[in-house]
C-alpha cells in the first residue's frame, strides 16, 4: 500500500499533467473560449480520478484561463474584447518602463538570459511553433523586466503577459503562424539599445513594438470577428 506521502506525490503529478495539457490547449486555442470542461469527461480522458482534475481546474482558474459558472459548470474563460483598450494601455506602459529601466542598468548574467530567450523566440518563429513563440516572447520580456530591477514591475508585467497569451495567439494567427523576421529583428534592436544604454531609443522601440501588436490585433478583430475596436497608443 502507498503511504500518505506517496499518494500526495502521485496526485500532484496527475494534477500537473492535466494542468499542463489543458493549459497548452487553452493557450493554443485548441480549446476555444467558452468550451465546456466537464470533470467526468476529463477524468475519463486522462484516466484518473476527479480530484486531480478539480485541482488542475482550480490552478487554471487562478490564472484566469477557466471560469466556474453560477450553475457550477466550468468553461474555458472567454476573452473580453471590450477591455482590450485598457489592457493594451497597461501593457504598453510596462513595455516602456521595463525596457527603459533595463537600458539604464548593467547585469551580464541577466543579459545572457535575455539573449537566450531571444534565441528561443527566433527558433520558434523559424519552426512556426506558435506555443513556443508565446512562451519565449513572455520569458524574453520578463527577463528584460528583471534586468530593469524593479520586482513590482516584473510581477505586474508577467501577469499582463500571461493574461494576454490568447490575444497573442490570435495575433500570430493573422500570419498563419508565419511570423515575419521583422519581429525577431525588433527584439534584436531592443537588445542593442539596452546593451548600449540608449534609454531614449529603448523607449521608442518599446512604443513601436507595442503599437504594431495593437494595430495587428485591431485589424484582426475588425476583419475576422466583425467587432471593430479603436485602440490608440500615444
Automatic annotation (TrEMBL):
GO molecular function: DNA binding; DNA-binding transcription factor activity
UniProt keyword annotations, A-Z: DNA-binding, Transcription, Transcription regulation
SMART domains documented for this protein: FCD (SM00895), HTH_GNTR (SM00345)
InterPro entries hit by this protein: GntR_C, TF_FadR/GntR_C, Tscrpt_reg_HTH_GntR, WH-like_DNA-bd_sf, WH_DNA-bd_sf
Gene3D superfamilies referenced in this protein's UniProt entry, alphabetically: GntR ligand-binding domain-like, Winged helix-like DNA-binding domain superfamily/Winged helix DNA-binding domain
SUPFAM superfamilies: GntR ligand-binding domain-like (SSF48008), Winged helix' DNA-binding domain (SSF46785)
Source taxon at top rank: Bacteria
Entry keyword annotation includes Cell wall biogenesis/degradation: no
Residues spanning the membrane: none
Domain HTH gntR-type residue range list: 12-79
Record has Transmembrane as a keyword: no
Pfam families according to UniProt: FCD, GntR
PANTHER family referenced in this protein's UniProt entry, alphabetically: GNTR FAMILY REGULATORY PROTEIN, TRANSCRIPTIONAL REGULATOR, GNTR FAMILY
Protein name as it appears in the record: DNA-binding GntR family transcriptional regulator
Organism: Rhizobium leucaenae
Amino acid at each position: 500500500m502507498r503511504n500518505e506521502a506517496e499518494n500526495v506525490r502521485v496526485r500532484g503529478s496527475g494534477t500537473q499533467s492535466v494542468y499542463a495539457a489543458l493549459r497548452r490547449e487553452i493557450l493554443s486555442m485548441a480549446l476555444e473560449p467558452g468550451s465546456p470542461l466537464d470533470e467526468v469527461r476529463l477524468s475519463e480522458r486522462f484516466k484518473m480520478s476527479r480530484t486531480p482534475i478539480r485541482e488542475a481546474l482550480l490552478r487554471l482558474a487562478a490564472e484566469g484561463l477557466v471560469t466556474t459558472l453560477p450553475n457550477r459548470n466550468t468553461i474555458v474563460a472567454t476573452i473580453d474584447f471590450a477591455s482590450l483598450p485598457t489592457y493594451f494601455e497597461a501593457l504598453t506602459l510596462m513595455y516602456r518602463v521595463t525596457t527603459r529601466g533595463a537600458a539604464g542598468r548593467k547585469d551580464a548574467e541577466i543579459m545572457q538570459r535575455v539573449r537566450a530567450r531571444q534565441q528561443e523566440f527566433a527558433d520558434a518563429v523559424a519552426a512556426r511553433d506558435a506555443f513556443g513563440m508565446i512562451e519565449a516572447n513572455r520569458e524574453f520580456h520578463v527577463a528584460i523586466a528583471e534586468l530593469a530591477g524593479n520586482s513590482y514591475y516584473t510581477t505586474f508585467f508577467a501577469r499582463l503577459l500571461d493574461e494576454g497569451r490568447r490575444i497573442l495567439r490570435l495575433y500570430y494567427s493573422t500570419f498563419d503562424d508565419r511570423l515575419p523576421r521583422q519581429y525577431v529583428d525588433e527584439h534584436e534592436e531592443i537588445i542593442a539599445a539596452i546593451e548600449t544604454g540608449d534609454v531614449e531609443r529603448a523607449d521608442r522601440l518599446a512604443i513601436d513594438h507595442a503599437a504594431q501588436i495593437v494595430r495587428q490585433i485591431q485589424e484582426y478583430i475588425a476583419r475576422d470577428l466583425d467587432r471593430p475596436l479603436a485602440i490608440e497608443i500615444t
